[in-house]
Design brief:
The chain is an alpha+beta fold. It has four helices and seven strands. The chain has three domains: 33 residues, no CATH class; 79 residues, SH3 type barrels; 40 residues. The protein is globular and about 75 Å long.
């Protein structure tokens, strides 16, 4: 039987293969696809550019009819890769109100929900890795500068 999802797949230029990878991905990997950019303040605080969305994160809509509107996340749907936000609704033809589904790429996280200790730990761990990498680069640059100075004498 042919496997539906390849774990060894790296990347492809072909859009159809990229789309197939996303549609056939298991739910634990789809969670990573639902990432949104952090605001400038959060980016500086956590040294990360984006984070997977969770319920009760506060977001700002960047594109579309509801641009510049803020709200809390009501629902994160891994099957459809969409997010619903409290207060951002539209009327159906029969008059009922429904929450509008948003693509995570059109959202920016303003405030993180840090009730989950594991999420906070993951963010701190990433921050620590980045700081260690910066320190390694600083040391390498210092060594190069020292070796360049000694050669010029």
């Amino acid at each position: 039987m042919k496997q539906k999802f390849s774990t060894s797949w790296i990347s492809s230029i072909q859009v159809r293969k990229q789309r197939k990878y996303r549609y056939n991905a298991p739910l634990h990997l789809r969670h990573k696809f639902l990432s949104a950019n952090l605001s400038k303040e959060l980016r500086a605080k956590y040294s990360k550019r984006n984070v997977p969305l969770r319920k009760d994160d506060e977001v700002l809509v960047m594109r579309g009819k509801f641009s510049k509107k803020k709200g809390k996340i009501l629902l994160v749907n891994l099957k459809t890769s969409k997010v619903k936000i409290v207060g951002l609704t539209r009327k159906k033809v029969d008059g009922t109100e429904i929450n509008v589904p948003f693509d995570p790429s059109n959202l920016q996280i303003i405030d993180l929900n840090l009730d989950d200790k594991k999420r906070l730990k993951d963010i701190k761990r990433e921050e620590k890795k980045i700081e260690e990498r910066k320190e390694e680069v600083r040391k390498e640059l210092e060594k190069k500068n020292v070796s360049v100075k000694s050669e010029s004498k």
